[in-house]
Amino acid sequence: MKRYSKSVKVHLPSKEPDGWWSVEVKFVTSCHSLFHNCQHLLLVLSPVERCFLDFLAEKMDNRNWVPVTKKLKSDFRVFLEEVTSNEMSKSERTLETYLKKFVDLKLLIRSNEVSGGYFVNPKYMFKGTLKERERVIKGLFEKAANGKVSFEPLLDKPISEYFDDHEGKLFAR
Predict the structure, then answer these.
(1) How far is CA 170 from its chain centroid?
(2) Which of 35, 65, 88, 157 is least surrounded, with the fewest CB atoms within 10 Å of its CB?
(3) Full 3-state SS string of the chain
């Protein structure tokens, strides 16, 4: 699996007669931002769960959309085996339990439109500029208004704290 997309050649001092080693350092250029407001959620993840979440974030598009297909899960399993020298492997069923946990923690937002479709919650992770992040968050609230996703993962407090309940009717505070 090709993961590196860029490299840089560096020269390191050496005790050799010519005095330098030439080393090529490879690195991945795809990345996402992780916002500090999710640290309390990440602390409850196991290292493999965190690895899977980061893998999903790496695969998300510019709307934070990631279709979790059999192929994506298979790709993660191959990746996990590769980076652990075949010492660790996870079943598809285990990955499904991880997805449920991510949804429960509101790190992922399940699509009500597409089976296996998720949005990585842009409150916590995003691939793009801060302005684009704001646009994606607003877009998800629009999807929530149309019943395509749940809006609760996007809120910063329980819905009941936004409204007063008077005889079964909700009024904005």
Answers:
(1) 33
(2) 157
(3) CCCCCEEEEEEEECCCCCCEEEEEEEECCCCCEECHHHHHHHCCCCHHHHHHHHHHHHHCCCCCEEECCHHHHHHHHHHHHHHCCCCCCCCHHHHHHHHHHHHHCCCEEECCCCCCEEEECCCCEECCCHHHHHHHHHHHHHHHHCCCCCCHHHCCCCHHHCEEEECCEEEEC
Domain borders along the chain are 32-167
Return the structure tokens found at 56: 């999903």
Over residues 116-160, the pLDDT tens digits come to 999 999 999 998 889 999 999 999 999 998 999 998 899 887 777
